Amino acid sequence: MTKHSDEFKREAVRIALTSGLPRERVAADLGIGKSTLGKWLAQYRPTDLTSAPQADLARENERLRLENRVLKEERNILKKGHAVFREPTAVRFAFVESWRHVWPVETICRVMRVSPRGYRSWRSRPISQRERTDMKVLAHIREQYSLSLGSYGRPRMTMELKEAGLNVGERRVGRLMRINRIKPIRTRKHKVTTDSHHRLGVAANWLEGDFVAAAPNQKWAGDITYVWTSEGWLYLAVILDLHSRRVVGWAVSDRMKNLAIRALDMAVRLRNPPTGCIFHSDRGSQYCPYAYQKKLQAYGLRPSMSGKGNCYDNASVETFFKSLKAELIWRRKWTSRRQAEASIFQYINGFYNTRRRHSYLGGISPLAFEAKVA
Predict the structure, then answer these.
(1) 108, 124, 140 — which closes off a domain?
(2) Residues 42-64: what's their mean pLDDT?
(3) 37 contacts: CB under 8 Å, gap ≥ 6
(4) Is the pTM of this model over 0.85?
């Protein structure tokens, strides 16, 4: 049992006499029992409190202070519980249970619009089968959220759970994610990084916004982006096969020189594309030089370039960069280029190509999509 000082007891008596609030409310706010407060009132009641000239002012000040404290308390409860405020009663009871050690139960119940009696009855009942299933599903949601690098929302999460053998619907998954504040991390706005202010040769746009390919190695697309580290910029060039959106070639370096060529060499070694495969890029200074165009010609690739100042003409690669940065790059500070390079390698080969579900592919990974259509 907590032993209270005489000063605390006198302050409690003063609040009870001047606040104008019921004793039950004062006792609950102070974390003591009603009977305890009654004993303190009999022991410490001042004889001149009501007769003092400043009594009315003291009562009003104390009432306003207590009201302000209660309002702050209720505001904090609402901030924590806004996601479950319109949920079923059982969900709000669970919220009360989670926070009862922080705020008085009566206060939480009043804010969440449930009765303390109903809450006590709920606590005494055994957990239902539905609640057990929710706990099981939630455990899987947390696991898949971690494995997806925080990128999956309700539709993709539901696909993952069904593949794991759980017979759940999107509404249930969405409810559990919302209640437990599990949501995909949002991205930043697009920033243009292409240097197209040059006098190098420019190829025609053979894609014309058509990013659909009927088979592998018919249409490729490439681009370059930057990643900031404590050691300076790390440049990343990638090439995607537009049939499956799989990254088939990539290269990183602390310099731009030959970066696009290295990514192209890797893609050709991996896929050995047929003559006539379209390679699409923007009008960046890495893709227009004679050396790069000569490489494309040697490999039998047909060059294609976006319209001037139109980033949407290479939307597939821009989408990949957006996913990479939202799901990996922007979430931490990179102390070295080597650290960033290793993480990018793991993201591309261990997640994006092999596990990440793509809406464009019907909710499966590029690797699974290629195996499906093979």
Answers:
(1) 124
(2) 63
(3) 12, 13, 16, 23, 26, 27, 30
(4) no
